[in-house]
Design goal:
The chain is an all-alpha fold. Strands 1-2 form a two-stranded antiparallel ribbon. It is globular and about 50 Å long.
Length: about 220
């Protein structure tokens, strides 16, 4: 069963999924991905609002004393995950087909959309997802009193379940599983949720820059 500590970590993630569901339903009604681009902005605003509302509940984010080595390891991990992400894209490595996110109008870049997309992916999504996948689910699988459980104590079962689920949450499931495993190892070894948040943010940020520079919109 979920306790009160779970809600602040689960609700932002569920809100994010809800907007994905809404976009899918609107797409089935005939709206194009171009029509739904601004829905992403609303999604990020809602998720950010929930994170801010419950900010005092995130005790795992309250204290962080980063050192150069930890930051470097997280950053390198984020870059490696990015490189794997753009390589592991064969047909059998994906679930369905992503509509992508094209921020252009008649070939002209809409920079407000671009900046909001990159900021959402690199700054908001990593916090929301790491609070759910690593801080909550990884530890909750082993103990309902998940806040009292040290990250390093996560069982093999919890590791595998969160890795698989994190993978199939994404279109590129194999890349997603590898990313999930990498972020979890960072969390378990560092004991700080900020390490996977930083790595996740680097992955998404570098991916965003790569998408924009080459027009690889299907990766968004």
């Amino acid at each position: 069963m979920l306790d009160r500590a779970a809600l602040p970590r689960v609700a932002p993630f569920l809100a994010y999924l809800f907007f994905i569901f809404i976009a899918d339903m609107l797409g089935r009604l005939g709206l194009t991905p171009h029509d739904l681009r601004w829905l992403y902005v609303l999604k990020i605003v809602v998720v950010l609002g929930l994170l801010c509302y419950w900010r005092r509940s995130y005790v795992e984010l309250a204290a962080w004393k980063p050192d150069a080595r930890a930051v470097a390891i997280a950053a390198v991990t984020g870059v490696v995950v990015f490189l794997l992400w753009i390589k592991l894209d064969a047909g059998w490595m994906s679930i369905g087909q992503s509509d992508g996110f094209d921020p252009r109008d008649n070939g002209r870049m809409q920079w407000p959309l671009v900046l909001l997309r990159v900021a959402g992916a690199a700054l908001v999504v990593p916090v929301m997802e790491e609070l759910f996948w690593r801080s909550f689910l990884l530890r909750w699988i082993d103990s309902a009193s998940f806040l009292a459980r040290a990250p390093a104590q996560a069982s093999a079962r919890a590791f595998l379940v969160t890795m698989v689920l994190f993978g199939i949450e994404h279109n590129l499931w194999l890349a997603g599983m590898i990313a999930g495993a990498a972020y979890t190892v960072l969390y378990m070894r560092s004991g700080s949720l900020w390490s996977p948040i930083l790595a996740h943010g680097v992955t998404n940020g570098v991916l965003g820059c790569w998408i924009i520079s080459g027009g690889h919109w299907n990766y968004w």
